[in-house]
Amino acid sequence: MPKRLPEDTLSLLTRTQLVKLRLKAKRAGVWFRALPRIDRVLVDLTIRVANNVRSVTLAKNILAVTKKLEGLLESSLLRAFREVGFRLAQKLSLIAQKWGNISAKNWVSDASFIKFLTVMHVNEPKTLKN
């Protein structure tokens, strides 16, 4: 008996969704610059041939390409929040907790604090950065 795809996956793998994703990637300039040719061809052929992806193997490959594109399309500021701001919030939280500030453990989950730290780090002059 062939494997079946989960329903939430099927909704992502329609021709319309793939066309939207390709257009978004082209507009952001990552379609040709960052995506390998084989991945572009896979998406293009799937758009041309299928209305919906039913093959488990094809679905896995298309989902892998989709994840690559989502990572490439993520804004640099959101990436900085995740990579820089969160890391700085963790460090500052640990230091403040060692100094006796009990409420500092909540700083790591405070989105506003993480955004503040990120923006301050991004705007810091290059000479002062590590």
Counting helices, strands and paired strands, the structural category is: mainly alpha
The tally of strands reads: 0
* SSE pattern: HHHHHH
* Whole-number mean pLDDT: 86
N- and C-termini, Cα separation = 57 Å
Query: Which percent range fits the helix content?
Result: 55-70%
What would your notes on this structure say?
- The protein has 130 residues and is mainly alpha-helical.
- The protein has helices spanning 7-12, 15-28, 37-49, 56-73, 76-98, 111-122.
- The protein is elongated, with a radius of gyration of 21 Å.
Quick take:
Helix 5 crosses helix 6. The protein has helices spanning 7-12, 15-28, 37-49, 56-73, 76-98, 111-122. It contains 6 helices and no strands.
Give the topology:
Layout: H1 7-12, H2 15-28, H3 37-49, H4 56-73, H5 76-98, H6 111-122
Output the keywords:
mainly alpha; 6 helices; 130 residues; 2 domains
